[in-house]
Amino acid sequence: MAAEAEQGFRPLDEASLIAYIKATPALASRLGGGSSLDSIEIKEVGDGNLNFVYIVKSSSGAIVIKQALPYVRCVGDSWPMTRERAYFEASTLREHGRLCPEHTPEVYHFDRAMSLMGMRYIEPPHIILRKGLIAGVEYPLLAGHMSDYMANTLFFTSLLYNNTTDHKKRVAQYCANVEMCRLTEQVVFSDPYRVSNFNRWTSPYLDKDAEAVRQDDELKLEVAELKSMFIERAQALIHGDLHTGSIMVTPNSTQVIDPEFGFYGPMGFDIGAFLGNLILAYYAQNGHADQANDRKAYKKWILKTIEESWNLFQKKFVELWNKHKEGNGEAYLPDIYNTTNLLSLAQKKYMTNLFHDSLGFGSAKMIRRIVGIAHVEDLESIKDASKRAECERAALNCAKTILKGRRQFETIEQVIEHIQSFDRD
């Protein structure tokens, strides 16, 4: 089957992409069809690492085309990479789009043999959230929108809503996204805790800090637990890479993109990725402060957004649970959890565990962004290396203590206080 799929695959360039669009009604119609297709303009906007990403415009419309290559684009065919990630990205976008259409771009077309997807163009002035955080832009609706997205996508793909048969069918479908999961296992849960050629950090300033991570036995034991949970726990259909680079925003709109790591995993991995990246953005602010703007007000806004994101998510998730408690979900059967008090106790325990999972995964994501292979622009764009290292050290120390002590936190407000205690501005 793999050989057959390879036979149908060819990387498209601009000329062959135009021919492909003209021959594909689902795409041609989005651009107006007919004579509109004579004025197509194409711009390649991929970040250069994995995929080709094209913005395609005609006089009557615009779409985005994304094509996965069978190798890491920036390295070449010496580093093979499964093209099937495109199938899982399209599948996750469609499923999450069904559950939360307000914050998920629509998929118009998917061609599995070509590993090619056509989807809605998220038009300017949308920008990547990470870039907005670096620029110090406030997004007043972000916490509300992201809590909607996480509550809906996680609840409706879990056993709180679905029966076991349907759940296991979906888990089996996404099990094949194993290569992308293995990549996460390596870069998040393994490499930062050992000597690896892929690791890097702001040297020489953080040499001792990176070594301390590799020597911290307590940290390693906690990370082992998180890694097991990531591999073993098929809790919900998660995005799998829900950082601030996978979210496009304006002050009024929030769109979640790029779920090529999508699979059935622990809910806390998505929640933690989002919160952990906001915490990294918080610690980066001191490096972006200047005489015109000390960023103190903006740092308060980030903390408020972290707090509201969790509290709103928790509220919405439990509301969905209460609304559908008599439904098909097989995790908490209504004839067993048959009093308000008992169901409330079950929900409290569930949400506390999910909170601690989210703190653990979020902290692990922070650590890998400081001493692992892939860093974040929030910190990387701080030009003064010693200043950057100061911000990174504060974030690293905060993450290590949260990861090790995550079960001691009862509220997000306690976590906010903890974050502030490592801030040296």
UniProtKB/TrEMBL annotation:
One of its GO terms (molecular function) is ATP binding. The keyword ATP-binding applies. The keyword Kinase applies. Its EC number is 2.7.1.100. Residues 137-281 form the Aminoglycoside phosphotransferase domain. Pfam families: APH. It is an enzyme of class 2 (transferase). Keywords: ATP-binding, Kinase, Nucleotide-binding, Transferase. Homodimer. Belongs to the methylthioribose kinase family. PANTHER family: METHYLTHIORIBOSE KINASE (PTHR34273:SF2). This is S-methyl-5-thioribose kinase. It comes from Urochloa decumbens. The lineage of its organism: Eukaryota, Viridiplantae, Streptophyta, Embryophyta, Tracheophyta.
